[in-house]
Design a protein that fits this description.
The protein is α+β, with helices and mostly antiparallel strands. The chain has a domain of about 130 residues: L,D-transpeptidase catalytic domain-like (Beta Barrel). Helix content is about 10%, strand content about 25%. The strands form two sheets. Strands 3-2-1-10-4 form a five-stranded mixed β-sheet, with no helix packed on it. The longest helix has 18 residues. The protein is globular and about 40 Å long. The N and C termini lie far apart (about 195 Å).
Length: about 240
């Protein structure tokens, strides 16, 4: 009896199960775990694709132009021009007299009234020469001086003349000089614009005899304490 009852119960249960068929729907792919997710549902671990960083434009520094220094030429020394004889038509003031030369010093005397030049060494006459000094309208300066510069040759210019290559020039006061003369031979007569003219042989001799001494190979020399100029006395 118990076996039959047990078999009957099993049959009833089988029918009940057949009648109560349940439709199971497949589960969707699990998403990220949330507060409402069923317990035990797997959380999605698929990584979200990382956003690619937007490119950042890097500012490129523009090099500032480098200032280039402009070279400046050093200053060039300007040579002092040699004096040009431009004599005034009136007599220049007489220079202050100096003391008499030492007994053996070389000195030059110019006597205007005699148109004569004498080279002295102390009280001894060394050489006497005929000269041409300044004309009445362009007189030669008088006084006591010293030769301050010598030039072997120089072009001389004035208001109404240009004389190239004047030889054996010896300046003794401003633009007044003793020098050689090749454009006339009237020595003994006033002929110049104020300078003291000599014949070429006399001028060459005096140029070599008088100070300052011209260094070997030089064409110009200026007096200084170690190489002084010869004393020049000009009087009527």
């Amino acid at each position: 009896m118990r076996v039959i009852l047990h078999t009957s119960i099993l049959a009833v249960l089988a029918l009940a199960l057949a009648a109560c068929s349940v439709v199971l729907t497949p589960l969707q792919a699990p998403g990220p775990a949330s507060a409402g997710a069923e317990p035990g549902a797997p959380a999605s671990c698929s990584p979200s694709p990382a956003a690619s960083p937007a490119p950042t434009n890097t500012a490129t520094a523009t090099p500032a132009p480098t200032a280039t220094a402009t070279p400046t030429s050093p200053p060039t020394a300007t040579p002092s021009p040699s004096p040009s004889p431009t004599h005034a038509p009136t007599r220049a003031p007489t220079a202050a007299p100096t003391s008499a030369p030492p007994p053996e010093e070389r000195w030059i005397e110019v006597i205007l009234s005699q148109q004569t030049l004498i080279a002295w060494q102390g009280q001894r006459e060394v050489r006497r020469m005929r000269v041409s000094t300044g004309k009445a309208q362009t007189p030669t300066v008088t006084g006591t001086f010293r030769i301050y510069g010598k030039l072997l040759k120089q072009t001389m210019t004035g208001a109404d003349y240009t004389q190239p290559d004047v030889p054996y020039v010896m300046y003794f006061f401003r633009d007044y000089a003793i020098h050689g003369c090749y454009w006339h031979s009237n020595f003994g007569t006033p002929m110049s614009h104020g300078c003291i003219n000599l014949s070429l042989p006399d001028a060459a001799w005096l140029f070599d005899w008088a100070g300052p001494r011209l260094p070997a190979g030089a064409t110009v020399v200026w007096a200084f304490p170690a190489n002084p100029g010869t004393l020049v006395v000009v009087h009527a």
